[in-house]
Amino acid sequence: MVLRGARQVGKTTLVRQFAKEAGLTLNEVNLERHLLLDEIFRTTNTEQICRELEALLGRDVRKEGSLLFLDEIQATPHALMALRYFLEDLPNLPVIAAGSLLEFTLADHSFSMPVGRIDYLHLYPLTFNEFLAALEPTLLKYVDELDLKKGIPQVAHDKLLKRQRQYFLVGGMPEAVTTFKETDSFLEVSQIHAAIVNTYLDDFAKYGRKQDLPVLQKIFTFIPRNLGRKVKYSNIDRDIRAAKVKEGIHLLTMARVCHRVHHSHCTGLPLQAETDDNIYKLLFLDIGLANHVCGLDWQAISAMNEQKLINEGGLAEQFIGQHLIDKREGGAPPQLHYWLREKKGANAEVDFVTSFGDLIVPVEVKAGKSGTLKSLHYFIREKGASIAVRFDLNPPSSQGVSHPVVLDSVKEKVEKEQVVFFLISLPLYAVGALPKIIDRVRGMKFCAQCGNESVLRNGPTGKFWGCSTYPKCTHTETYRG
Question: Whole-angstrom Cα distance, residue 21 to residue 16?
């Protein structure tokens, strides 16, 4: 198994905890400290490799009940090539390797990552739910058990909003979360972030090609300051060729330092089948690190009102996107999309578009109930979506929406069409509950006139589907379900 993920997400700690809980003897080798082993691994002779490792550790690494852990495997790239031979020659010996920035290392080597009989798992920063589990687990049930009809107690809602703001600054890097839990000090968290950022920059110099270093550093600092904006290579550096910038973004994306959110036409599934590789936004690895790079501290974040918190630097979009990315196993990078229509006088952009089964769901991040949903209305009209999601800072709710959309406007004549859909409104902190909520509403029927839920009613000739808001709405035609 190769455990992959960006630097400092907790790969080493996780393997150590696993070995302890499984009762295995952990034979750990940090390959950054033993670079000469690369030539030994190059031989792919597992007998010779094991003898070298046993001489280094002073014990039998092949003994039953042992786990061989090759940490920082990017430092000795030929160890990657040798992994498949461990499986073939020593099938009873469990081997875990962990590394970051593997793509940087492989860019300078002719062999490719071994595939087929080797498992690849990726580790990501802690989610907000995991953050809650560490700091205030009693709040977690309000997110896990969220019911749109029952809502959330106001006291719990206020506490969750406070923790959410803390997560914006602390983020999900394990060491930062642990430090905050133990010290309750944002200053000490900032020092952890500074050390992690410096480690990344040092790694670029250590594992990247020298000619790539300037562009990698520029991209790394550019992304947090441009969250939620379509990437234009000239905005990163006008003096660096676009192809060079594109290559740097590809390397950082494959290493999970950032994530691309591609524009998709969203006319069918899978969404990635209709993506435009040249139109995308970028998410950073972690919202806490992003704020550190931008120079934001707790005083700045706690002073932001709702409108500014949502829109300032794309913080809310980073938070939601960080939780929505489809974290697929294997070599494929995470998938997440958005919808963009660039039309003179009628531009529209939906922050994210995701799918649940056969359901395509547009997702908007807005500043409260007063936020306009114009782009969402255009998407509903053009793509025929029946369910939409809005994230803001208000308590959870749901409602049917029936809204006119301007189709064309010529001089004084305005042509409009009514769009009808079911809108799920969630507070930002409830993003982890979205899959369960969508599963509950996927089988519902909705009123074709007002968009609210339709329910079975008793009539003179038997049961029929009628709007749940009756007698306010007496419509009986339904859609979906």
Answer: 9
Q: Judge whether 275 and 336 are in contact, CB under 8 Å.
A: no
- Report the distance separating Cα 112 and Cα 383, nearest Å: 40
Cα gap 179→192, rounded to integer Å: 8
Return the sign of the alpha-carbon dihedral for residues 233, 239, 245, 246: positive
Per DSSP, what are the bridge partners of residue 406? 416
Length of the chain: 481
Note the helical H segments in 209-348.
213-225, 233-236, 242-254, 287-294, 298-303, 306-311, 315-324
Of 162, 180, 196, 187, which Cα lies nearest the Cα of 285?
196
The alpha carbon dihedral of 316, 235, 172, 192 has a sign of negative
DSSP string, 69-112: EEESGGGSTHHHHHHHHHHHH-TTS-EEEEES-HHHHHTT-SS-
Tens digit of each residue's pLDDT, the chain (481 residues): 999 888 899 999 999 999 999 999 999 999 999 999 999 999 999 999 999 999 999 999 999 999 999 999 999 989 988 998 999 999 999 999 999 888 777 766 666 666 667 888 889 999 999 999 999 999 999 999 999 989 999 999 999 999 999 999 999 999 999 999 999 999 999 999 999 999 999 988 887 787 788 999 999 999 999 998 999 999 999 989 999 999 999 989 988 899 999 999 999 999 999 998 899 999 999 999 999 998 877 777 777 766 666 555 588 999 999 999 876 555 566 789 999 998 776 789 999 999 998 899 999 997 544 567 889 999 999 999 999 999 998 999 999 999 988 776 554 555 678 999 999 999 999 999 999 999 999 889 999 999 999 999 888 888 989 999 999 999 888 887 5
Query: With the C-alpha atoms ordered 270, 271, 275, 281, is the resulting torsion angle positive or negative?
Result: negative
SS3 content of the chain, % helix, strand, coil (to 5): 45, 25, 30
Contact 280, 334 (CB under 8 A): no
Q: What is the pTM of this model?
A: 0.90
Helix (H) or strand (E) holding 191: helix 186-207
Kindly state the tokens that stand for 306: 């709702």
Dihedral through CA 222, CA 325, CA 276, CA 236, nearest 10?
0
* CA atoms 465, 476, 149, 319: torsion sign: positive
Q: Are 348 and 384 in contact (CB under 8 A)?
A: no
d(CA 93, CA 384): 53
The answer to whether the beta carbons of residues 96 and 13 sit under 8 Å apart is no
What span, in angstroms and rounded, lies between the C-alpha atoms of 317 and 261? 11
